Design the sequence.
């Protein structure tokens, strides 16, 4: 990208041309991609932009409250769809089937809400690596694989389709978005579901959300990694008090990367890892074991599914 200011003014013009006087809906997740799109589109078409935040029940700890605070001043619709998503995921263990179920549910909910708004135009925060990975068939990507199949949008606008993540962050800075958004770690569209091996249940989501919150508390400020999170691997044996128990195994994942296409594990001092592990087992009684993932991408992906 040559220049963030120039990119912004070109995008504003592009959105104005594409949207005309029509209402435009978009899914706002609160990540840097959709936030940048929302900020540019708000400059372009003001109140004709209707961002919709869907709480899938698979979001990080405190996320919905955070979104409400950050974007309360624009015309934001918040939709609580947690039960619907859990229901759609019941009994599904295959990773791709999970992604598909979430993607489809997301579209259904989004379609329903967009219809209520009477919008014919859709804005999406798809970035370049999303397109590459989806076109290459590596996985079904939420942003792209989930394009509205049944909805009659007259137009789809993707203002940041040619940008890499670091370029999106540059644009976020130029737009004056809060630092918290500009430097926010990527979070996958399917949310905590891809950090749970096997079937997604309410209990597993609650455990992984809590563990993820602890990992973020401990690592984000200190190490500023590309991404760090917790994943739930399965059940194993542990000892709590005098009893052998069946407890959950949590993996800590922390990586550095430029664009998410390759990644290296973070070199975290052992004492820090032990402290985080102790916090997780102490604060979440159902967890019996914590491991640190030392795999690069490739061969592993960043997420677990
Ligand atoms: P993987 O796990 O494939 O992830 O190495 C690469 C980067 O993409 C994020 N990711 C997603 N982002 N929708 C998204 O918007 C998705 O379906 C999705 N899956 C993975 C992941 O968090 C990492 O930053």
Sequence:
């Amino acid at each position: 990208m040559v220049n963030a200011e120039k990119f912004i003014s070109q995008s504003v013009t592009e959105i104005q041309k594409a949207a005309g006087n029509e209402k435009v809906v978009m899914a706002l997740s609160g990540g840097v991609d959709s936030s940048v799109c929302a900020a540019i589109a708000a400059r372009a078409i003001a109140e004709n932009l209707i961002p919709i935040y869907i709480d899938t029940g698979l979001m990080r700890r405190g996320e919905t409250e955070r979104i409400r605070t950050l974007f309360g001043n624009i015309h934001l619709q918040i939709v609580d769809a947690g039960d619907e998503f859990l229901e759609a995921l019941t009994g599904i263990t295959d990773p791709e089937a999970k992604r598909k179920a979430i993607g489809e549910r997301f579209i259904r909910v989004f379609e329903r809400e967009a219809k209520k708004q009477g919008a014919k135009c859709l804005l999406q925060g798809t970035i370049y690596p999303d397109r590459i990975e989806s076109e290459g068939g590596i996985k079904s990507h939420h942003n792209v694989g989930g394009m509205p199949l049944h909805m009659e949008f007259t137009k789809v606008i993707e203002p940041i389709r040619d940008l890499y993540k670091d370029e999106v962050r540059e644009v976020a800075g130029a737009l004056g978005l809060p630092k918290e958004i500009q430097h926010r770690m990527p979070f996958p569209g399917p949310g905590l579901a891809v950090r749970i091996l096997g079937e997604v249940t309410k209990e597993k989501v609650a455990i992984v959300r809590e563990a993820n919150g602890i990992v973020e508390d401990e690592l984000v400020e200190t190490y500023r990694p590309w991404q760090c999170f917790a994943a739930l691997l399965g059940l194993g044996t542990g000892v709590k008090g005098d009893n052998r128990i069946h407890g959950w195994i949590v993996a800590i994942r922390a990586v550095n990367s430029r664009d998410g296409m390759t990644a290296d594990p973070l070199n975290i001092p052992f004492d820090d890892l032990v402290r985080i592990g102790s916090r997780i087992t102490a604060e979440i009684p159902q967890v019996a074991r914590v491991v640190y993932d030392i795999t690069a991408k490739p061969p592993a992906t960043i997420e677990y599914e």
Observations:
- Residues 95-117 form the longest helix (23 residues).
- The chain has a mean pLDDT of 92.
- The chain has two domains: 4-182, 201-292.
